[in-house]
Amino acid sequence: xxxxxxxxxxxxxxxxxxxxxxxxxxxxxxxxxxxxxxxxxxxxxxxxxxxxxxxxxxxxxxxxxxxxxxxxxxxxxxxxxxxxxxxxxxxxxxxxxxxxxxxxxxxxxxxxxxxxxxxxxxxxxxxxxxxxxxxxxxxxxxxxxxxxxxxxxxxxxxxxxxxxxxxxxxxxxxxxxxxxxxxxxxxxxxxxxxxxxxxxxxxxxxxxxxxxxxxxxxxxxxxxxxxxxxxxxxxxxxxxxxxxxxxxxxxxxxxxxxxxxxxxxxxxxxxxxxxxxxxxxxxxxxxxxxxxxxxxxxxxxxxxxxxxxxxxxxxxxxxxxxxxxxxxxxxxxxxxxxxxxxxxxxxxxxxxxxxxxxxxxxxxxxxxxxxxxxxxxxxxxxxxxxxxxxxxxxxxxxxxxxxxxxxxxxxxxxxxxxxxxxxxxxxxxxxxxxxxxxxxxxxxxxxxxxxxxxxxxxxxxxxxxxxxxxxxxxxxxxxxxxxxxxxxxxxxxxxxxxxxxxxxxxxxxxxxxxxxxxxxxxxxxxxxxxxxxxxxxxxxxxxxxxxxxxxxxxxxxxxxxxxxxxxxxxxxxxx
Amino acid sequence: xxxxxxxxxxxxxxxxxxxxxxxxxxxxxxxxxxxxxxxxxxxxxxxxxxxxxxxxxxxxxxxxxxxxxxxxxxxxxxxxxxxxxxxxxxxxxxxxxxxxxxxxxxxxxxxxxxxxxxxxxxxxxxxxxxxxxxxxxxxxxxxxxxxxxxxxxxxxxxxxxxxxxxxxxxxxxxxxxxxxxxxxxxxxxxxxxxxxxxxxxxxxxxxxxxxxxxxxxxxxxxxxxxxxxxxxxxxxxxxxxxxxxxxxxxxxxxxxxxxxxxxxxxxxxxxxxxxxxxxxxxxxxxxxxxxxxxxxxxxxxxxxxxxxxxxxxxxxxxxxxxxxxxx
Lengths: 575, 327
Prior knowledge:
By secondary structure, chain A is α/β, with parallel strands linked by helices. Chain A is 26% helix and 22% strand.
């Protein structure tokens, strides 16, 4: 920053305390500072060869009449009757003191708008070996996160909070993935790194591999400023549940006809993989006594049965081909006077068994199309993340109980495979919205256990969770606590006041309640204040009408939910 | 019983120093505009051209410390350390403080008085006529008035501004288009029958001109009632004075312009304890100037420190801040 410095934007004021952590700058005539601008001050400290540079970002700007004492004086000032000076001052929250001598900038010291290397230093970008672009600042320049806090080197996991529809959580998560894969930050590892996205709402994530036809040049330019080439994801595999009642088990999607695989588990997968506990993953199951019954039945099914071709399972000579048949068999066995204790467990009360039976019976509708052996066994019916860079699992058509089952089973499978390989690299990124459903703050469930495992051990295993939820206050604390990068979009005012968002300074909390779609507050461990990032309009299609090429399934467009980017000026040319 | 409450804060006294203000000793001519028997409240004609800009000039002063200056062993003379400031507000659509100077001085009749350097700046020695407290304050006032004149001369940029000075014109009469506005009436200039015209003034109305010849000054003067709450015959009344040497027609036109322009600047009771006579720009300027005088306790401490150092005659190496009045 030395050399040809522009004139200072202002000077540190002496009427409010200047501290090493925050100080106010009065703006010079004709100068302005806006929120998030980066400001740097210097101070000479005896005994140090170089001046201490205190840098920070503007958290608040105020303007007032000096010399006016009453509110109504403003009219006198405007009429030219009362002399008063209009003065603007900006509050700067310190991000960095270099060298680390924590002294306040002295009142009267000139404050400069930081640019180039000074801005990089203020925001710690100079210390980041691997910079992941996270969006553009209000100054139109790129903002970065340190990849070491994403990839597990020093931390992992991203957590995103915000109101559905306006916070654009999922879109931001996919933007982060795009940046990870296309910015070169992963270097040659990018080719082997995979992402697993659970699509919980609408079919808006099914077109990641289609370029967005609504992307204009201004938005393309924003991508380039981030060091990215705008485009679609190159390698995408889509898994969808089988269509209900379809004898061929074709995928149940309305808007995408090609490259979609139906996923299901055969009865053999179900029994051998011990998936039954994931059927009992609701909050209400947590309060019941039948957990023991679930585990006994899981074991008994494996003990008393064997594979029977095409994924079917044979127990006591009965070949089970559908989930319904499996449920019937289990009900029969656990309620049988003779075999009951063998299947349900000894000393289990009738009430408990009946409760188990009720819950098991009620699971049929949710799971009968996901657990089946009534179609010829195909090679690719299980969700695999190796086949493509990005794997999208479409859950939006499934009832909650089935969603939990799929998420739980898929995560466990990914987790176990990682455990087996024993190496963290290449990484697997898992994008999961509605975390509050899968890992609620209260209660216990097999899925929550898996997610906790991912949150706490995923860092060393190479599984990075990009989780999102409307309200962080409803999600298990340990999952949020283990997320190195925390992102907040538009927040509900009551939610913003909760302690979960304590990392946002008060002004940012207020700003989060009015944040536009596409604006995110990104907190990372190295930078003591959240960076306010605006990410560009998605370069990949988020609905059928945005994708290039013919649209054979146009009739399905009505089923597509609202565009999460409604309200974001598509043609805005940046700040 | 009908009574009214004077709008001024009681701490300032009343705008008319009651207990029968002393009649002036100077000859008063009440026939400048109209003969005395035709005296009546006058309202400036609405077609009177308003000045393009009005410059208000005012000064403030503060005694920072009293001192005894030893001029011979065992003998000391009184003096005062004081800060003073003068400034101007230019009202031409917006009100801006265009000029302000601050000075600090040591006022004493002692021949031993010399400049004193302190942390708060240099106090320059200024002689007073005699050691009486009145003479010391007069010397200070003189110094401040000199500053005001200089500010007023500098504040005039185009030549057709109206120059409003706080207080009587005194030595400032030579400034063209300058009008002194007097808030407190210590002296009675008019005979009783003409004084009644003052009581009858409505808001924005003025008395006819009268000339006061008190050598070396000759002044044309009139009373003007500013808009404000009812508060007795003299409430809201200011006395304006202009150079007595002006031709009657010019003086009359100037009086009309001033009387039309000033009511707009009259202050309101809840904002100024001397409302309405203490005009808004003057009040704002005074606050600004007092602020520029610096913290009184800090200046006092600096003086105590300097006296302990025992070094009148300066040389302390304290740099003079910008805006300090040069010697």
